[in-house]
Amino acid sequence: MMKAIGYHQNLPLADERALLDLTLPEPVPGPHDLLVAVQAVSVNPVDVKLRAGVAPEPGQAKVLGWDAAGTVLAAGAQVQGFAPGDRVFYAGAIHRPGANAEQHVVDARIAAQMPTRLDFAQAAALPLTAITAWELLFDRLGVARGGGAGQRLLVTGAAGGVGSMLLQLARRYTALEIVATASRPESMDWVLGLGAHHVVDHGRPLADELQRIGLGGPGEGVVDLVASLTHTEQHYPALVQALRPQGKLALLDELSGPLDVMALKRKCLSLHWEMMFTRSLYGTADMAAQGRLLAEVARGIDAGELRHTLTRRFGPLNAANLRAAHAWVESGRAIGKGVLEGF
Ligand SMILES: NC(=O)c1ccc[n+]([C@@H]2O[C@H](COP(=O)([O-])OP(=O)(O)OC[C@H]3O[C@@H](n4cnc5c(N)ncnc54)[C@H](OP(=O)(O)O)[C@@H]3O)[C@@H](O)[C@H]2O)c1
């Protein structure tokens, strides 16, 4: 048996039963899986949304946690490239139990050796947001490595977890000019430190803000690509207005209703969804691309090209500390990533 943190019912964090310390059977790895001794986990908005709104299977506990770093205990018969004792990092799959437990199983094709220069907590802060940002930039918006010269990318909500990786990837591995949005002095400093060329305030009208920093006149399209990372419905009309003809808009957040795609027609704009669990959920033929991109992120960290985004350590993994980390993410004011480590 192993320690795990999970829930039986969807409750607000004020209720102590929102997340519980549990004892559960240890998982059994399948042929493609790694069995991992979890050393650290990070919390993402997906954890908060599931805890608040997705019920466990009847009679079962639901265990969250889709960002982990740990040590390989065993590898399934079909696994290649990993051995017991390896230090790995990964985000995992949404249709399987999460990593808020002493032991966890993950398909080896979506995991990678963690960066050698990071500790487990720093490594656990990376995978989910690195995969999301990488897929959004290179696969969905279709920017080539080393490409993007003469093009401008706008990133909204850029100081959060996804933005903190997206800014680095775009600055390090493309020639794009990057405009980030942030609303507070500390989040503005953070995005400039991670590679944004300009910062504008998403609490003010976007067109005015872009004009204030010298990018175009009122109502004029001034960006080629948009990464709308949060509150897309709130910003959508202004983002459509800010895009140049034939521009691209990528989004990943939950919407409460349909978006008006007709607004995109006049400028021939295209819309691109990113969903980092798609490859593992459908077992796509290219799902190993996630393992490869994580390996490339690890290489970039070890080469000093990228840096980790850990900003908060919430202590050992138990229900009380996990509730505190959920509250931080739920506030909508997180800068970078928060992590729990050890049991
Ligand atoms: N589809 C996928 O694969 C996928 C993957 C990862 C995340 N997501 C979703 O993407 C969203 C962002 O994730 P995340 O981890 O980056 O979130 P996060 O870390 O919680 O984002 C926090 C940031 O959001 C900014 N923010 C708050 N209110 C805003 C507003 N009204 N307009 C613009 N920015 C605002 C804040 O900036 P200031 O403090 O400066 O205001 C803060 O830095 C979430 O909805 C998450 O569920 C989806």
Q: What would the keywords be for this entry?
A:
16 strands; binds NADP nicotinamide-adenine-dinucleotide phosphate; 2 domains; Rossmann fold
CATH superfamily of the largest domain: Medium-chain alcohol dehydrogenases, catalytic domain
Oligomer: single chain
Poorly predicted spans: none
Radius of gyration: 20 Å
Q: Helical stretch count?
A: 10
Ligand types: NADP nicotinamide-adenine-dinucleotide phosphate
Q: Count the E strands.
A: 16
Mean of residue pLDDT values: 97
Class from helix and strand fractions: alpha/beta
Write down the CATH class of the largest domain: Alpha Beta
Order of helices and strands: EEEHEEEEEHHEHEHEHEHEEHHEHE
Describe the structure.
It contains ten helices and 16 strands. By secondary structure, the protein is of the alpha/beta class. It has two domains: 189 residues, Medium-chain alcohol dehydrogenases, catalytic domain (Quinone Oxidoreductase, Chain A, domain 1, Alpha-Beta Complex); 144 residues, Rossmann fold (3-Layer(aba) Sandwich). The strands form three sheets. Strands 3, 5, 6, 7, 8, 15 and 16 form a seven-stranded mixed β-sheet that branches. Strands 11-10-9-12-13-14 form a six-stranded parallel β-sheet, sandwiched between helices. Strand 15, helix 10 and strand 16 form a beta-alpha-beta unit. The longest helix has 14 residues. The radius of gyration is 20 Å and the shape is globular. The chain starts with a strand and ends with a strand. 49% of the residues are buried. Bound molecules: NADP nicotinamide-adenine-dinucleotide phosphate (NAP). NADP nicotinamide-adenine-dinucleotide phosphate binds next to helix 1 and helix 4.
